[in-house]
Known about the structure:
alpha/beta; 9 strands
Amino acid sequence: MTDQLDAAGRLRHLISLHGLGAARITALLDRAADLRDAQRRGGGAALPPLLAGRTVTNLFFEPSTRTRTSFELAARRLGAVVVNFDIAASSTSKGETLEDTLATLEAMDCDAFVVRHKENGTPERLARHARAASIVNAGDGNHAHPTQGLLDALSVRDRLGAVAGRRVVICGDVRHSRVARSDADVFAALGAREIRLCGPQALLPDPDAFPGCTRFEDFDAALEGAEVIVMLRLQKERMASAMIADEREYHARYGLDTARLARAAAGAVVLHPGPMNRGIEIADAVADGAQSLVLEQVANGVFVRMAVLAALLER
């Protein structure tokens, strides 16, 4: 993978959490928490304009509400100019390569590009061609979603005090999930005791895709003693390949309801990257319950992305 650090060892790009290391990840989480504390102490007042004079461009080649809005809020709150690139009206729709689009925008003094793309490796590909700008991966194919992994880790740390020593379950369509990969990377880096992957056989990854993780097809067994439960969105078109007849059957086997949650450790926390399919992978009572961190994840996403952009662009 393209080196994410510059010659001085500073973060230049954020493509993946794999290999980033516990110290650098912890520093990003600490910075996010500090920014959150500063905003709350100020009663919502503007934070110091750490990114004044910087321009952040959102290059989203896939639909997104949460992630794009979160990055936009993060950049604006730190004083950056934000450009939301209109893919449909861009020259890429006329055949221009992504590399040429990047070069054109860099020539206009854009400092960072937040990239979401359906193809694995697109943010890394752009990072190899960037002359001075930073590239942030906002999700590529089923490869990685690093800021989601960071915000999930921050949310767990807030509630449980630490990730280290925790048993983690990631349940659902793990095979096709970039969130699952980034969560596995961040929880492993921060010292989770065990990471369990659960789902129908057809939706579990190849054994070598998640080294060090254990695989379960029985959700009830996977939940025993779990302290962190990450529920993944099921794309309905995957049901046939998983040999599941319908949504009701999936929920019966892999949906998280209050009775099933009781199998986990006392005080276990529940995460979901959204959008949620209520009544399929998660019941209303769990999604809205006291053990759910869903809204904390959304709130922390802004501060994590502020921390990442500050690490990349702060002068």
